[in-house]
Amino acid sequence: MSFNKKIWLVFFLFASTVASAQPLKLALLVYGGGGDWYANPTSLKNLAIFCNQQLKTSFDTKEAQVEVGSPELFNYPFVHMTGHGRWTLTDAEAQNLRKYLEAGGFLHIDDNYGLDEYVRPALKKVFPELSLVELPFSHPIYHQKFNFPNGIPKIHEHDNKPPKGFGLIYKGRLVCFYSVETDLGDGWEDPEVHQDNPEKRKQALQMGANIIQYVLMGE
Fold first, then answer.
1. How far apart, in whole angstroms, are the C-alpha atoms of residue 174 and residue 126?
2. Nearest CA to 207 among 162, 164, 175?
3. 183 φ, ψ (degrees, to nearest 5)
4. pLDDT tens readout for residues 148-169
């Protein structure tokens, strides 16, 4: 486990044992450009509930919302991003996000359909020297509490393409996980929102829990 992951783990364990009035929160990234960063309003609540049940975490079920250029970003070991449209970064925002990820933070981007063409150039602005790589099915993120031997599960059809999980790897550490053609966040939402069948919704939440466990515990 890397030094930075150990820092986050110590922080998480401490936060889980201090006063329950301020439990650790999952964070939603607020970004500019016109995209609907708020697209899945019930998803992180349900993921927090599921993780508390299955991983014995103590997450607050009310998400935090944090702007990409804010120093508050550094308060959260896990930040989730979603949306359907534009994402643009100022130079200051790109620098802040890079510092956060270099310091041990983790960004999960979930393409809610239409985000892909903006994600790739934005991440290039953050890490010009890095490129997204498709993670092999053997990657530990697919083999935490729940086992996904065929990689990320398919939740929504979209363009009828196979689901893929990409990563940005900085100095040997996965700092960003990018899920495409799956729509995990839709699967995390309240059942009546998208009316996914129970098995698909369970798979989405299990994969989400795997991401959280990977972020907090490492390989």
1. 14
2. 164
3. 65, 55
4. 999 999 998 778 899 999 999 9
Amino acid at site 145: K
Distance of CA 192 to the CA centre of its chain: 23
15-33 confidence digits (pLDDT tens) = 443 434 578 999 999 999 9
Domain boundaries, the chain: 3-217
H helices of the chain, in order, are 3-17, 43-54, 91-102, 116-126, 184-188, 191-194, 198-217
CB 136 within 8 A of CB 109: no
Residue position matching structure tokens 């031997």: 149
Distance CA 70, CA 142 (A): 31
* Digit-coded pLDDT (tens) for 63-91: 999 999 999 999 999 999 999 989 999 99
Q: What pLDDT is attached to residue 3?
A: 42
CATH class, domain 3-217, is: alpha beta
pLDDT digit string, tens, across residues 22-67: 789 999 999 999 999 999 999 999 999 999 999 999 999 999 999 9
By CB atoms closer than 10 A (0-12, 13-18, 19+), residue 217 is middle
